[in-house]
Design goal:
By secondary structure, the protein is an all-beta fold. It contains no helices and eleven strands.
């Protein structure tokens, strides 16, 4: 089964912005940076807040509830390195953003 899921119209999200999307029943935060799209799990490991409602500062996404920081390119936990977000590969095809939901891995883990 193909693990890629079409989640958004690429022009609908400009660099420096993020939002929550759903891919096969999984909530994922989609982030647009100058270098392209990145995707991390939507639930903060601290208290479960939606990361799609967080504050984006460059490539750092801050949880809207308590400010925990994560690198959206890798999912690495910057506040708590032992609590990363799962990250997911992205691609853009024909103006649509796709996320590979079957292969997300925590930062630092072997794929």
């Amino acid at each position: 089964m193909d693990s890629w899921c079409d989640v958004a119209d690429a022009p609908s999200l400009s660099p420096g912005h993020c939002r929550t999307v759903e891919a096969r029943g999984r909530r994922i935060t989609l982030v647009c940076l100058e270098d392209g799209f990145h995707a991390v799990e939507d639930t903060c490991p601290h208290r479960g807040a939606s990361m799609g409602s967080g504050f984006l500062d460059g490539c750092t996404l801050h949880c809207p509830l308590h400010g925990w920081a994560f690198d959206v390119r890798t999912g690495a936990g910057l506040t708590r390195p032992d609590k990363p977000l799962r990250s997911f590969p992205t691609r853009v095809l024909d103006g649509r953003v796709w996320i590979e939901v079957g292969t997300g891995t925590p930062e630092g883990a072997a794929p």
